[in-house]
Amino acid sequence: MDRNEIVKTVNSIFVERFEMDESELTPEKKIIEDLQLDSLDLVDMIVGLQQKFGIMLRDNPEIRNVRTLGDVYDLFEKLAKEHPEIADKIK
Amino acid sequence: MVLLRSIAIYSVTVLWMLVFWLAVLLPVLAVMLLPAPRRRHVIRFSLLVFGQLTIRCVWRIFFRIRFEDRTGGVREPGIVVVNHRSASDAFLVARPGFCGAQTVNGWPLRLPFLGPVARAAGYLNITEWDYGTTLARAREVLSSGEMIVSYPEGTRSESPRMNPFHSGIFRIAMELKVPVYMLCIAGNQYMPDRKFRFREFQDISMRFLGPLPAEEIQKCPTAYALKMKVFRRMTDELASMDAELDHEKTL
User: Fold this and answer.
1) Tell me, what's the pLDDT at B50?
2) Which helix (H) or strand (E) element contains residue A12?
3) Which residues does A50 contact at the CB level (< 8 Å), separation at least 6?
4) Looking at the partner chain, which of A16, A40, A44 has a beta carbon nearest the beta carbon of B168?
5) What pLDDT does residue B199 have?
6) What's the total number of domains in chain A?
């Protein structure tokens, strides 16, 4: 699964669940400050990512370091390398 | 001049507060014997009367409040989302004339006098209660036919620009399947400011919008989607209200 596929999949969650315009989803965007997600919205985001990629993030310490959309892409790029089966789970 | 008027408005408001609450003291004490839901309703009604008289009579000496009701007279119980520029908002929300419980941070509930009144009225302590407690109390208020008045910015912005919204109250609206109204207040950002100083006196404009029907709310995939829908609508409305106020000032 390459970076482009990951970006497309992550962005689809923000478009479907948060009704964001895809054009505003750029890697440097801060999830809290720029996209205005609060702590409850972050739970929705994590649930969406878990469902889409078919992996649990709750116990992953790196999810706590995510600040920007680019950080989310980086995290899933790393996870995709560690778990190649992710590509098959994408719904 | 502004300082003198600030001293005057605080003096008159405090004096009026004492007169009103002393006048209703005995009935209010009697109400304390009623069961909690009934007691809260009566106190909320008293606060509505107090707020209405304050802004329509007492503050009328100092500034004008222009109010437009764009709800078409609909008063189905729901969530009223209010932008929050100043402490005067807590009084101004009485203007549309509905009875309701406000959501507040913990600290106003600990203020002398106002705190016990707000607690007796069943105001929702949105920062210190867990979600389940807040939801249960919100359900109780709405099922008694009243509104929940919420400031999702969480704190005063003291500026024409709104702070980002928190999602909690929108989650409650979705869960309880109730409509969402929008109450936009412009012109009072420095009346008073965050340090409770009146830095200017000018007309205040209020528009009561909505409601977003419960069916439309249910179509939102998440509370975030709903909050951003409301945020954008209020941002547009407030921009036009501020522009009108600025235009009037230049005339």
Assistant:
1) 95
2) helix A3-18
3) A56, A57, A58
4) A40
5) 87
6) 1
Whether the predicted pLDDT of B61 surpasses 70? yes
Domains in chain B, please, with CATH? Answer: 2-250 (3.40.1130)
Given this model, what pLDDT does residue B210 score?
A: 84
Q: What is the pLDDT of residue B37?
A: 87
pLDDT at A91: 53
A30 touches chain B (CB under 8 A): no
Chain A residues inside the 8 Å CB shell of B222: 17-18, 41, 44
Contacting residues of B for A40, CB less than 8 Å apart: 166-168, 171, 223
Most distant CA pair in chain B, distance: 55
For A31, the domain range is: 3-19+26-89
B40-51 confidence digits (pLDDT tens) = 999 999 999 999
A18 touches chain B (CB under 8 A): yes
Q: What is the mean pLDDT of residues B111-116?
A: 86
Is there a contact between A40 and B166 if contact means CB atoms under 8 Å apart? yes
What Cα–Cα distance (Å) separates residue B16 from each residue in B6, B22, B167?
15, 10, 37
Q: What CATH number does residue A59 fall under?
A: 1.10.1200.10
pTM recorded for the entire structure: 0.91
Which chain B residue's Cα is nearest to A47? B222
